[in-house]
């Protein structure tokens, strides 16, 4: 005998199929007597509703589509973990797609997930085009956009105040007794890089110190190594004893250059990164850095999206700014 159907339940209970549906979905009032008959029939037949069929009828799948640029990027994996674990608390599962930075792949992922009846999207990217944003809006499916390098009008999100965090880190390095601090940033003109430079400059101006900035074209450890000679020359010429770099990878590359050239970290120079990637606590010396709460960003994002889906009170009526914290490790020390 095959699996019992809703028709079998209705027949055994002596009610209509629509009455069974109302009891199952709790959509419209049903008399206590009829409800009990339906529940008894369901129990007797061990009826299990076809969730896919129900989702098509109810337009409720309890699925969220998550599109990442590349799951291999460490911080994106941390965001996904927060999204998935908190989503399960609210009985939502995720369908995951990667675009690998290709706009056609991103558009295809949006189309694919829409056919899977996802109730919402979370897009995790470092750069979303206006065309892709328009496509998202055209689906009329609620979404949250987590874009590291750009800001968009009329879109609220969960993010980090990079200006404030770089300001705090710069102030911390000066509080360690350093007379001068060099900031190594990225040449790229975007929200993230501009905010960090602005934060460094605000701290410098507030303390009445001299500004020293070197910009590089890249964000990898190799780029940090390659800028080493120029950065050390600037430090020697200006009595600089601390260097703050745009991210952990560049900072570690810079420390490698120092090690290869007889410069001791932190005895000769203190070094700080940004992000608190997993390698920051493994590499020797352990890296002083700013810890970004990526898991929490993912967790808040899925909560906000589910509230949008359910049309409940919006928790992102304005950007949700996450606080970071400075993790002091072996690569920096007090001077004097």
UniProtKB/TrEMBL annotation:
Q: Which UniProt keywords apply?
A: DNA-binding, Transcription, Transcription regulation
Start and end of every HTH lacI-type domain? 4-58
CDD domains in UniProt: HTH_LacI (cd01392), PBP1_LacI_sugar_binding-like (cd06267)
Looking up PROSITE patterns in the UniProt record yields: HTH_LACI_1, HTH_LACI_2
Q: Which InterPro entries match?
A: HTH_LacI, LacI/GalR-like_sensor, Lambda_DNA-bd_dom_sf, Peripla_BP_I
One family from Pfam that matches here is LacI
> SMART domains, alphabetically?
HTH_LACI
MF annotations from Gene Ontology: DNA binding
Q: Does the keyword Ribonucleoprotein apply?
A: no
Task: Tell me the PANTHER family matching this sequence.
Answer: ARABINOSE METABOLISM TRANSCRIPTIONAL REPRESSOR, LACI-RELATED TRANSCRIPTIONAL REPRESSOR
Name of the molecule in the record: LacI family DNA-binding transcriptional regulator
């Amino acid at each position: 005998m095959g699996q019992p159907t809703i028709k079998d339940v209705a027949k055994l209970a002596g009610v209509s199929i629509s009455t069974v549906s109302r009891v199952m979905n709790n959509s419209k009032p049903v008399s206590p007597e009829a409800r009990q008959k339906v529940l008894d029939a369901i129990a007797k037949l061990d009826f299990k509703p076809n969730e896919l069929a129900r989702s098509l009828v109810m337009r409720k799948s309890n699925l969220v589509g998550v599109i990442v640029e590349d799951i291999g990027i460490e911080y994106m994996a941390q965001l996904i973990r927060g999204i998935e674990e908190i989503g399960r608390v609210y009985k939502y599962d995720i369908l995951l797609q990667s675009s690998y930075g290709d706009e056609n792949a991103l558009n295809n992922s949006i189309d694919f997930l829409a056919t899977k009846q996802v109730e919402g999207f979370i897009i995790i990217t470092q750069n979303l085009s206006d065309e892709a944003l328009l496509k998202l809006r055209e689906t009329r499916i609620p979404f949250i956009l987590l874009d590291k390098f750009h800001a968009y009008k009329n879109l609220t999100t969960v993010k980090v105040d990079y200006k404030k965090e770089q300001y705090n880190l710069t102030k911390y390095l000066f509080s360690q007794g350093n007379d001068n601090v060099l900031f190594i940033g990225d040449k790229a003109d975007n929200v993230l890089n501009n905010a960090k430079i602005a934060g460094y400059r605000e701290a410098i101006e507030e303390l009445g110190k001299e500004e020293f900035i070197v910009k590089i074209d890249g964000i990898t450890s190799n780029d940090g190594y390659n800028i080493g000679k120029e950065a050390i020359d600037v430090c020697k010429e200006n009595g600089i004893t601390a260097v703050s770099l745009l991210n952990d990878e560049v900072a570690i590359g810079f420390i490698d250059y120092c090690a290869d050239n007889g410069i001791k970290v932190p005895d000769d120079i203190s070094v700080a990164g940004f992000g608190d990637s997993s390698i920051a606590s493994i590499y020797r010396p352990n890296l002083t850095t700013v810890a970004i709460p990526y898991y929490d960003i993912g967790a808040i994002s899925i909560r906000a999206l589910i509230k949008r889906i359910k049309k409940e009170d919006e928790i992102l009526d304005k950007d949700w700014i996450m606080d970071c914290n400075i993790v002091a490790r072996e690569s920096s020390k007090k001077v004097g």
